[in-house]
Specification:
The protein has a domain of 184 residues: Vanadium-containing Chloroperoxidase, domain 1 (Up-down Bundle), CATH 1.20.144. Helix 6 runs antiparallel to helix 7, helix 6 runs parallel beside helix 8 and helix 9 packs antiparallel against helix 10. The chain contains ten helices and no strands. The chain is globular and about 55 Å long. It is mainly α and 296 residues long. The N terminus is likely disordered. Helices cover 66% and strands 0% of the residues.
């Protein structure tokens, strides 16, 4: 009896959570747009010390300020998306050439080292999550389908809100998030089809979690493979696009990366991925969004 009554409660909670998420995205879009409209190009009336600036008629004009470099914001439209996507793919697959030229060695070493370290501890870490019921409520809310729905709903809702408000910058942000997800999908399919790592939930709870690579045979395209986590890649890509393009609002990166971290963690608690899968997926999603898509 308790099993049947808990299912409607879980579904009801999911519906309430999805509704609250949509309203939150709409409110965020409105708040961000309103703040952007309040910014003007009027020069300051006071000096750096807060006092009024006074110039004598005979005094020489102050020297022109030296222009400082600021990163160029990349904008996106439906017309530009195909070309942008192809350029992203070129940058992604030619990245090894950059390493050969001596660039980006430190972040690459940190990501590879972190992934390797977690892979070494996966056989000891994963059984703990498979044998506990502590995350059962959390897993009902952030299951695979609901997490994927959140990843898709955030940029989609933001785009619809930007169309209603006729805000081209917000429209571009939503399109860039979709572009990042498309880039993630290509890399994810290639890596999964090569590694063919078994998912933790395909192994017995008390089974052997050590020999997992090249053991999955569910799909030639790697849909049943565990390495890396596609949810982690895409959630961190979407989070990075919004965190970078709205970083003048200090709360946006916290909300964006916080939600991405919750979604990524749920992939471990549900038994869909090992911690190393999630770590690498999150790192790749961040890197693709920031350096290929947003390009800051």
């Amino acid at each position: 009896m308790s099993i049947h009554t808990s299912v409607p409660k879980a579904n009801s909670f999911r519906r309430r959570f999805a509704t609250a998420l949509v309203w939150a995205v709409l409110c965020i879009s409105h708040a961000v747009g309103a703040s952007a409209q309040q910014r003007t190009d009027t020069p300051p009336l006071c000096g750096d010390d807060g006092s009024a600036v006074q110039h004598h008629e005979d005094s020489p004009a102050p020297p022109a300020p030296v222009p400082t470099w600021t990163p160029t914001l990349r904008e996106a439209t439906w017309h530009k998306l195909p070309g942008n996507f192809l350029q992203d793919q070129k940058n992604m697959w030619l990245f090894p050439l950059k390493l050969g030229e001596g660039h980006h060695w430190l972040p690459t070493a940190l990501i590879v080292g972190g992934t390797a370290g977690l892979m070494a501890t996966d056989p000891q870490t994963m059984p703990h999550f498979r044998q506990t019921n502590a995350f059962s409520g959390f897993n009902r809310v952030f299951g695979g389908t609901s997490s994927a729905g959140i990843i898709a709903a955030v940029p989609a809702t933001f785009y619809v809100a930007s169309l209603i408000r006729k805000n081209s910058y917000d429209q571009s942000s939503a399109l860039l998030a979709g572009e990042a997800v498309a880039d993630d999908a290509v890399l994810m399919v290639v890596m999964k089809s090569i590694t063919r790592r078994q998912r933790p939930d395909e192994i017995a709870v008390n089974g052997n979690y050590s020999d997992t690579f090249f053991q999955s045979h569910q799909s030639v395209f790697g849909s049943g493979s565990s390495f890396p986590s596609g949810h982690a890649m895409m959630s961190f890509s979407v989070a990075t696009v919004f965190a970078r393009r709205y970083r003048q609002h200090r709360w946006v990166p916290f909300v964006a990366y916080g939600l991405a971290s919750v979604i990524s963690f749920s992939r471990v608690t549900t038994g869909a991925h090992f911690p190393s899968d999630v770590f690498l997926g999150a790192a790749l999603g961040y890197a693709i969004a920031r350096f290929d898509v947003v390009r800051q």
